[in-house]
# Entry
Amino acid sequence: MSTIKQDRKDLEMLLNGVAPIADTLTQQPVQPVVNQQPQQKPVSVVDNTQGTNLESERIFEFDYDSLRKTLKKKAKKTVQNITKHILTDDLLEEEYIKDKIEQDVESLTDLYMQVESNNVMQRSILDTVSRGNTMPRMYEVFGQLTDKIQAINKQILATENQIRKTYIDLKFEIKDKTAELLNQKYVKHI
# Structure
């Protein structure tokens, strides 16, 4: 029966190119190791693939600039639909309101881009799996992307509601400020 200590010594001897000590139960003689190779020092790995262009099959087309432009139009239309029901035309011409609208359009565009890019990745995973690459990691990533898309969609709805609330608050702030200014002018004339 061998012990852990003996097994370790035998393993070290094998690694060093020396035959292990004979098993004490069988009392077999020690056999020399034939064709011993001199022990070599570890060689560092050299990555010579830098700069090598590996050709890969294109799975999908993704025109970032065109997609962003399309989604920015969608975001602008959404923000305009929200604001035109809340603010009057003269308020929409205010510089502050115009800047705020542009900020909101950019925020929504970014959220729409996130959803769209995640959708593209999901489609590419489906395409890859349909071609036979059924690695478990593909299914895991697909599920994670689904969760992300749902979370971003909730964030889009929350952002749209926040935009509505912001413009309603702005409308009342501007009305209050206008009423205050008119009241000050009226008091001065009395």
